[in-house]
Amino acid sequence: MFYRPAEGHGLPHDPFYAVVSPRPIGWISTRGQDGQDNLAPYSFFNAVASRPPQVMFASSGDKPDRTGTKDTLALIRETGAFCVNVVGWNQREAMNATSAPLPAGADEFAAAGLPKAPCETIPCARVADAPAALECRLTGIVRLAGRANWLVLGAVTGVHLRDDCLRDGRLDVTLFRPVARLGYRDYAHVDRVWEMPRPGD
Known about the structure:
Blueprint: H1 16-19, E1 23-24, E2 26-31, E3 37-42, E4 45-50, E5 53-60, H2 71-79, E6 81-85, H3 92-97, H4 108-112, E7 116-118, E8 125-127, E9 132-143, E10 149-161, E11 166-167, E12 170-171, E13 179-181, E14 187-189
Antiparallel strand pairs: 1-13, 2-3, 2-6, 4-5, 5-10, 6-9, 7-8, 9-10, 11-12, 13-14
């Protein structure tokens, strides 16, 4: 099968999401200038550089109570800060709950029954029991083609690692089993890893 995206695929569901998978989930927490907290998952998320560490996520679509965007991006524009919380197996249901289309100003932490903890380098809350969290300062917002598509870039200014997820000086993903997004309504989690040295290592 071959198709041109502009002409449609003819399938019951868009296969693009299944092709580009698994995708890590950036569970983005933000705080508005009014002190209101927000939390939402984004599956178009990844690290883009390591020295210094930088991340990106993309926001698609908008809400009736936000002009041309969603709550997360609107609050990042206000404050220039956001926190990326890692979703472990134990947080999967809460993560999904925070994807609900709540009205602007609603606190998804409270709606999903999630404990908060303060960030150290930015004025923002984070998910207290997340396996890891990346505090970020906004470095750029890029308009993408399409309706209400935005790329958000941030520099990591602080890193939280849950102590029970460390083993022999390494963050061991098998201890928290990170959740990834696949296509359609499908997800996966990592519970098995192996080493494969690169040539010359």
